[in-house]
Design brief:
One of its GO terms (molecular function) is triacylglycerol lipase activity. InterPro entries: AB_hydrolase_fold, Lipase_secreted. Keywords: Hydrolase, Signal. The protein folds into two domains: 323 residues, Alpha/Beta hydrolase fold, catalytic domain (Rossmann fold, 3-Layer(aba) Sandwich), CATH 3.40.50.1820; 90 residues, 434 Repressor (Amino-terminal Domain), CATH 1.10.260. The protein has 16 helices and ten strands. Helix 5 crosses helix 6 and helix 9 packs across helix 12. The longest helix has 16 residues. It is globular.
Length: 449
């Protein structure tokens, strides 16, 4: 559970000097209007935060350029543990339509750094929302679990250990960067946006001047929705950031086909996931979004108002609101909405993994065979396809538990694997060539799913 039982009082939210890659950018970002300090005793929701905005002219800067840098509000470093300080970095990135955009990442600095080299863990939280105010840079302060599922009977209850995971990583001397990878429009499962934003959060963190540099070892980690952002970052690395070296990635509860997931969770306790998977990708495609809205019913219990209300819901609220519903009941033509040419094109562009590039670094995939949210067959296909193309993958299929169980059951194995990546001992501890696929039985926790 999140250890957030605290009061945030009388803390200065200071704004550091703007920084960027060039002296010209630096001069622009330290202009009088942008360099004014913002004082706040508590963190502000992104929708109300004047500094959760890109400065005028940000489009002219390269992806990964730092647009704003500030020390995070409140006592986030204290409640996280093993943390000396926390910073918010607003940086230039690229959206799903390949247009200039921006995002924010939260960079945690360890109390005690590694003596031999620096290491950065890029940690993608499964925050599963279309509300920008639920983004990690803000929700990490909240006692409400990010990415939580419904609590009914424990069917999909998540004990979100995000701050604990971050604190443990910091305790190993790693820096940890946590991006708001859905971007300013909170485009859930807009995979192109998420992959770009993840890569650029790493670029910005390495350029921050806060103890990291281009020689730092880098690893990605994401579970469920976080696996989407992490994996697409791997796919885009070679074409989008050829200068960036990612040393490895751990992908848990892998969501390898966003659209198939819609059909799997529809009418189940996980139906809210389908809402995000249908609406999230089209948010950045205005014509497709307009078409989607036009297909919603205007009357009855399942109508446009109820469906669009999801855009202002936390994950917990969303899972409760759409519990066991058929999401297709909200549409005039039911599931045919997914075959509308505009909507289908937006989904297809953000749907399939493995088609934009082969991971150049080692990958650890861990997944429950009985995963009730995303079929194991999709992960099998992902691994087999990449293995045929020369990837180095360790794939463990757990015979115990379901989607959320594996988040816990897979944790020790993921951390051990990431440790080998970040301390440089991977080739001594794992097969560094080809693929290893095995079934395992790991029962740290089992809810019976």
């Amino acid at each position: 559970m999140w250890c957030l039982d605290y009061l945030v009082r009388n803390v200065l939210w200071s704004l550091l000097a703007w920084t960027s890659l060039t002296s010209t950018a630096s001069a622009h970002l330290t202009s009088t209007s942008d360099a004014l300090a913002v004082h706040s005793s508590v963190p502000l929701p992104p929708s109300q935060d004047p500094r959760y905005r890109a400065p005028v002219g940000f489009e002219s800067y390269p992806p990964g350029a730092i647009l704003r840098l500030r020390k995070a509000a409140g006592n986030l470093s204290t409640i996280t543990g093993n943390c000396s300080s926390v910073y918010n970095i607003l940086y230039r990135t690229t959206d799903s339509r390949y247009r200039p955009s921006w995002a924010v990442t939260t960079l945690f600095l360890p109390s005690k750094q590694l003596s031999s080299n620096t290491a950065l863990l890029s940690y993608q939280l499964p925050y599963n929302t279309m509300d920008v105010d639920q983004s990690p840079s803000y929700s990490l302060y909240s006692s409400q679990p990010s990415g939580a599922g419904p609590s009914n009977g424990g069917a999909f209850q998540i004990a979100d250990n995000s701050l604990t995971d971050i604190g443990n990583a910091l305790g190993r001397g790693w820096f940890v960067t946590v991006p708001d990878f859905e971007g300013p429009s909170a485009a859930n499962v807009a995979a192109i946006q998420e992959g770009h934003a993840t890569i650029d959060s790493i670029r910005a963190s390495l350029r921050s001047g806060l103890g990291l540099d281009k020689t730092s070892r880098v690893a990605l980690w994401g579970y469920s929705g976080g696996s989407i952002a992490s994996e697409w970052a791997l796919e885009f690395q070679e074409q989008y950031a050829p200068e960036l070296q990612i040393h490895g990635a751990a992908l848990g509860g892998l969501v390898a086909n966003n659209t198939r997931c819609i059909y799997v969770v529809d009418g189940t306790p996980l139906a809210y996931i389908a809402v995000g998977a249908i609406m999230g990708p089209v948010i950045q495609y205005p014509e497709a979004y307009e078409r989607l809205v036009s297909q919603l019913k205007t009357s009855g219990s399942h109508n446009k108002t109820g469906f669009l209300a999801a855009k202002k819901m936390s994950p917990t609220q969303g899972f409760a609101a759409f519990y066991n519903q058929s999401i297709f009941d909200y549409f005039v033509n039911g599931s045919a909405v997914l075959y509308d040419p505009l909507i289908r094109q937006a989904h297809l562009e953000n749907q399939f993994m493995t088609y934009h590039g082969v991971p150049r670094s080692p990958v650890f995939v861990y997944k429950a065979i009985k995963d009730e949210a995303t079929p194991i067959e999709d992960a099998d296909y992902y691994v087999n396809r990449n293995c045929m193309l020369g990837a180095n993958i360790l794939y463990e299929r757990n015979s115990v538990g379901g989607h959320l169980d594996e988040m816990v059951n897979g944790l020790p194995r993921a951390v051990a694997w990431l440790e080998s990546i970040l301390d440089g001992t991977y080739s001594d501890r794992y097969n560094a060539h080809g693929c290893t696929i095995r079934n395992v039985t790991v029962s740290t926790v089992n809810s019976g799913t």
